[in-house]
């Protein structure tokens, strides 16, 4: 009886400890540890619904793809470098599609920071519709509570370009850092309200996720009664005839805010469709989803006001004015080369030892 009582007490203690650990930012960091590609199962989220009539890329039995990379068979190289999905699409035809480590075409993988590029698309849609006036608007028009913190001169463009000058610790391994607060925390609006500036806006590029979460709050406020996820459903998921259901992680169940700096959870083929939309300058099979002007602004070189030559409006530019890509931690990528009519999607458990930027640009040359 004594032993049974001790086991029951130990079990109750473990349950209580688990609840305490997962109910605060530090506890969740300790309990869940570093981000991984199953994190979509850990957080609250809002659903996205597949279209009744889905768009499908064409397939071929004669796909063109490299047989080797660095003198290693192509499949083995990808698998050795922790890849779970790899797709090459040329002229809307899948040249290569392979899944590894138990994953398949129906497996969900979090976007991580690829969501930043999707957030940029939605900002463009909101500007097209007049919900947001322009990128030159101060963000305090939408987040007036930041006026007291000196944000009057921070514009939407500064956020898009990562030149806002906000004070934000992007470390992914520091449980007390801002990135952990945003990723594991339960109240993003509260965290945003505490933000400070460390440098003058428009002077220096610094990649920090706080910029994109501020964009998320600007977007939410501009949408009035809609959620960001419902706007994504309306503007992107339904028009692009997505093949699968998906979700966007939020900070909490009640009155949650989408983690716009990360955490769009979807399948590889549907991520590829986002690349196709931008490859075609915002047009989807004859319908303009987001203005061509916005897509061109988002993917062209602009080094004014502290901006850099490899980043534009939440998209990475491996070779400016030639290609662009969305990128997330652990090696999530959607690479696009419009002149080659080429899209590459790589999703992974880790980035591995591969230099993916170089691999993508080298593959593009082969096509």
TrEMBL record:
<dbReference type="InterPro" id="IPR012338">
    <property type="entry name" value="Beta-lactam/transpept-like"/>
</dbReference>
<dbReference type="Pfam" id="PF00144">
    <property type="entry name" value="Beta-lactamase"/>
</dbReference>
<feature type="domain" description="Beta-lactamase-related">
    <location>
        <begin position="82"/>
        <end position="352"/>
    </location>
</feature>
<dbReference type="InterPro" id="IPR050789">
    <property type="entry name" value="Diverse_Enzym_Activities"/>
</dbReference>
<protein>
    <submittedName>
        <fullName>CubicO group peptidase, beta-lactamase class C family</fullName>
    </submittedName>
</protein>
<dbReference type="InterPro" id="IPR001466">
    <property type="entry name" value="Beta-lactam-related"/>
</dbReference>
